[in-house]
Amino acid sequence: MNDIDDNPTPQGDLALQTVAMPRDTNPSGDIFGGWLVSQMDLAGMVTASEVAGGRVATVAIEGMAFLTPVHVGAVVSCYCDVLEIGRSSIRIVVEVWINSKHDGEPIKVTEGDFVFVAIDETGRTRAIKR
Ligand SMILES: CC(=O)SCCNC(=O)CCNC(=O)[C@H](O)C(C)(C)COP(=O)(O)OP(=O)(O)OC[C@H]1O[C@@H](n2cnc3c(N)ncnc32)[C@H](O)[C@@H]1OP(=O)(O)O
């Protein structure tokens, strides 16, 4: 995982942008980690589907850490960078960034390595065309 201080700008391309809503909070009013993972999975799926030219499934999520809380109303941006393309798999680092409530500076919230697999209509793996 990249160190937040060594990597002050997003890595990769913007794949998904959304707003953290009150419905995405737990009873204490904090945004759920699971909601963020869901957004990251969607962002990764968009990028992986483009690379794979069709249907993909998430096979693994590795090495995640939540670095800073997300507040309701924050614009949540997911950036994807393709790290590796195998026979059927695509490894993507997904980073989530928000802007600081105080000074508007971009802040990295979390990142994780997501592995997607290209699958056919029956759900079996398929080779990615290059
Ligand atoms: C967007 C969504 O659909 S989210 C839904 C949640 N995800 C799912 O339902 C997927 C459930 N899993 C599956 O259906 C199956 O595991 C499949 C079809 C994805 C893969 O089937 P497998 O029998 O594991 O395939 P196989 O062993 O050939 O591995 C396929 C590729 O995935 C890679 N892979 C498999 N497991 C892992 C893992 N845990 N971590 C990293 N890579 C992995 C393999 O290295 C291989 O890569 P390569 O083809 O580039 O060499």
UniProtKB/TrEMBL annotation:
Name recorded for this polypeptide: Acyl-CoA thioesterase
Similarity field: Belongs to the acyl coenzyme A hydrolase family.
InterPro entries in alphabetical order: Cytosol_ACT (IPR040170), HOTDOG_ACOT (IPR033120), HotDog_dom_sf (IPR029069), Thioestr_dom (IPR006683)
Annotated Pfam families: 4HBT
GO biological process, one term: acyl-CoA metabolic process
Annotated GO MF terms: long-chain fatty acyl-CoA hydrolase activity
GO cellular component entries: cytosol
Organism: Mangrovimicrobium sediminis
Superkingdom field: Bacteria
